[in-house]
């Protein structure tokens, strides 16, 4: 397949009073993908897999019932004319779930996987069986986080803000591929993962997305302040404030939660010495529909955040 068109990037400075004295500049980098629904980090992560796909080959991957990754893969499949299968961590496929409905509209075949089977997705026997069942599909891991996915993220020019080079690069971190991309692109620059999951294996997952012989020393993970998907009133209010005051659209599962954690780190002085932060806005806004569907957002909050 011919190489894919490149994304464009938009920078916004957030004049956010996040810390006390010597507050660093905070720049948000948003990616505008050529295919709108393959948004944020997904465009970069899926890039090489889409290009490596053999003619006629489909793509299969894994995700939760509100997965941004599955919607992005389904949208890529529709746009570039390949078939897609999503193995969804759920007992039963909910036909009203807006994320799953969108995946189906985009032509993805969905298959429910119970939690126990889902956890086996990386086991060689499980993958071998999957390859036999779906011989015409390229299998991608959950979140598209693997060596190729991280190498795609390494194309992101996150260092150069409009005001000069950043000295701290950060992003929301869940399966680790996005941070791994930043780490390898800028080995001399400090990279900070802002975890949106409580996962003791996260550091190892990041290492698995880095070239095996590498030993990067330029990164660390902040301590997560809540489990994956946990959304409370304070977090939703934080996202609404970002929208109201700075016209920055976030959602509380990934980007909003990560920015809230960054704000806490700045307020407690944990990032002293940092002068300019570049934060990668990883997308995920389709998740707002699922949050409203689960009544985790009021109608007013949903409309504000979507606007
Ligand atoms: C919107 C969004 N932001 C951030 C992340 C976290 O990225 P990663 O899984 O590469 O750590 C994800 C999950 O892939 C996501 O959907």
From TrEMBL:
Keywords: Pyridoxal phosphate. Residues 40-283 form the Tryptophan synthase beta chain-like PALP domain. The modification N6-(pyridoxal phosphate)lysine is found at residue 42. It comes from the Bacteria. GO terms for molecular function: D-cysteine desulfhydrase activity. InterPro entries: ACCD_DCysDesulf, TrpB-like_PALP, TrpB-like_PALP_sf. Its cofactor is pyridoxal 5'-phosphate. Pfam families: PALP. The active site is at 67 (nucleophile). Belongs to the ACC deaminase/D-cysteine desulfhydrase family. PANTHER family: 1-AMINOCYCLOPROPANE-1-CARBOXYLATE DEAMINASE-RELATED (PTHR43780:SF2). This is D-cysteine desulfhydrase. It comes from Alishewanella aestuarii B11. The lineage of its organism: Bacteria, Pseudomonadati, Pseudomonadota, Gammaproteobacteria, Alteromonadales.
